[in-house]
Amino acid sequence: MITVHLRYEIDPDKLDDFTAYGRTWIRLVEKHGGTHHGYFLPSEGDSDEAFALFTFPSLAEYEVYRTASKTDPECVEAFDFARSTGCIRRYERRFLSPVFDGA
Q1: Does the first or last residue of the chain, that is N or C, have fewer Cβ atoms within 10 Å of its Cβ?
Q2: Mean pLDDT in residue range 7-36
Q3: Which residues contact 3 (CB under 8 A, 6 or more apart)?
Q4: How many Cα atoms within 13 Å fall on the side-chain side of residue 72?
Q5: Are 102 and 42 spatial neighbours (Cβ–Cβ below 8 Å)?
Q6: CB burial readout 27-37, b (16+ within 10 A) else e
Q7: For residues 56 and 88, what is the distance between their CA atoms, to the nearest angstrom?
Q8: Beta-carbon count within 10 A of 45 CB
Q9: Span 70-86, mean pLDDT?
């Protein structure tokens, strides 16, 4: 299992656009076989930082999703939305291995 952690630097004046972007990707990740754990938006503290977490059963299945997202019309539309609104300034991606309670 692999969990992808995304850290976004967002435009705080375009939080509504980023929220719409996030809601779209939750569904799209799940459409392509992943489990989305949500987007986490600024509340207090830094107003230009947001996070997202989603999991795929393996790194190989994540790579299938990444390849498919480049041509899936809904994914392309979501990428274009972020570019056209400028709601995302930049992002970082990390790959994590989750640990769960063994009970």
Answers
A1: C
A2: 96
A3: 37, 53, 54, 55, 95, 96, 97, 98
A4: 15
A5: no
A6: ebbeebebebb
A7: 24
A8: 6
A9: 96
Write the DSSP symbol of residue 86: T
The predicted pLDDT at position 103 comes to 60
Looking up tokens 């509504």 gives 16
**Residues 95, 4: contact at Cβ < 8 Å?**
yes
Residues recorded for the chain: 103
What's the token pair of residue 35?
A: 């489990």
Nearest to 83 by CA among 7, 29, 6, 11: 11
Distance, CA of 90 to CA of 14 (rounded, Å): 14
Separation of alpha carbons 19 and 75, rounded Å: 16
Residues β-bridged to residue 55: 3, 35
